[in-house]
Design a protein that fits this description.
- The complex is a heterodimer of chains A (about 110) and B (about 180).
- Chain A is α+β, with helices and mostly antiparallel strands and about 110 residues long.
- Chain A has a single domain (about 5-110), classed as Arc Repressor Mutant, subunit A.
- Chain A is built from 4 helices and 3 strands, in the order αβααββα.
- The radius of gyration of chain A is 17 Å and the shape is elongated.
- The two termini of chain A are about 30 Å apart.
- Chain B starts with a helix and ends in a 5-residue tail after the last helix.
- Chain B folds into 2 domains: about 5-65, no CATH class; about 75-180.
- Chain B has helices spanning about 5-15, 20-40, 45-50, 55-65, 75-120, 125-130, 135-180.
- Chain B is rod-shaped.
- Chain B is mostly helical and about 180 residues long.
- The interface of A and B includes residues 28, 29, 50, 56 and 72 of A.
- Chain B: Pfam families: HAAS (PF22564).
- Chain B: It comes from Sporolactobacillus laevolacticus DSM 442.
- Chain B: Keywords: Membrane, Transmembrane, Transmembrane helix.
- Chain B: This is DUF1700 domain-containing protein.
């Protein structure tokens, strides 16, 4: 994912973060692991993203006890975040469908 | 790079954002390290995953300035300077001007007295011409005392003027700094 435009990557990451947190409240470290399993990303950049989403009211935070070590900062999605995520998903699906289409036509055309 | 260095660099790179935000960001990373250690990772592994402080700080600053457009930075510098200048103008007119004029006139008066005392022996000459030798001697020697006082006062005034000049220059410099917006950490 290194060649894709930085802004593009940021937008997609934002969507991934919202979807993952919508699935299950999680703390920063957990989220970073879940994302970096599948997408190559500097985990440190997720924290600014989480802060921004929290500031914009899409996420809220609370402290959750942990069995080992100090309490952890959990992120959960807000109603506003839920709406925003749905809008992003719709946009993403339309976008990726179109991109897939272009790729299929382009690559297919080249092979003929 | 180890954890301490990571934090050190990150903190330095983030020094332009408010201390409260900076502390929160650093504590997020602190938590990340703690959990990573608990999972048996080394400092190097965790830093490797996080990415370098430069990348992280770029992200933080970009987000910070995107969500805080009212930041007191270059864009609004001119407005800020004008407001500061107007504020200072009123402050100077109302609070500083009166005492300053008082001090300056006292200073000038003392200088005048000092000069007058130093040259007071000259006055004994017209007294001598008018009233003869003995009054001249009396006036001459008593005015010598005044002359001595005048010299001492003059020396004192030299120190006072140095001090006043220094205070005035520092105050003007302070004014300029406030208007230009330097000295903000």
């Amino acid at each position: 994912m290194n060649h894709l435009n930085v802004q593009f990557k940021k937008g997609v990451l934002e969507l991934c973060v919202l979807v993952l947190i919508d699935g299950k409240d999680q703390y920063g470290y957990e989220l970073a692991q879940n994302i970096s399993e599948k997408i190559q990303v500097a985990e440190g950049t997720l924290y600014p993203l989480l802060r921004r989403l929290t500031k914009e009211g899409y996420l809220s935070t609370y402290l959750g006890e942990s069995t080992e070590g100090p309490p952890r900062k959990y992120y959960s999605i807000t109603e506003k975040g839920e709406l925003y995520m749905k809008a992003l998903i719709a946009e993403w699906q339309q976008f990726s469908k179109a991109v897939d289409q272009f790729i299929k036509e382009g690559v297919g055309h080249g092979e003929e | 790079m180890v954890k301490n260095e990571f934090f050190h660099r990150l903190e330095r790179l983030l020094k332009e954002i408010p201390a409260k935000d900076r502390k929160e960001i650093l504590s997020d990373f602190e938590e990340h390290f703690t959990i990573g250690f608990n999972e048996g990772k080394t400092e190097e592994e965790i830093i490797q995953e996080l990415g370098d402080p430069e990348t992280i700080s770029e992200e933080v600053l970009a987000d910070y300035y995107a969500t805080n457009p009212k930041s007191p930075h270059p864009v609004t510098g001119i407005t800020r300077s004008i407001l500061a200048a107007i504020g200072l103008l009123f402050f100077n007119l109302i609070v500083i001007l009166g005492p300053l004029l008082g001090i300056l006139s006292a200073y000038i008066a003392f200088c005048g007295v000092s000069v007058g005392f130093v040259f007071s022996p000259l006055l004994s000459i017209p007294i001598g011409i008018d009233s003869g030798f003995e009054p001249f001697l009396f006036a001459f020697f008593s005015s010598l005392v005044l002359c001595g006082i005048g010299v001492l006062l003059g020396i004192a005034m030299i120190y006072v003027s140095k001090f006043l000049w220094y205070a005035l220059v520092s105050y003007l410099r302070f004014n300029i700094n406030v208007i230009v917006g330097r000295n903000r950490s």
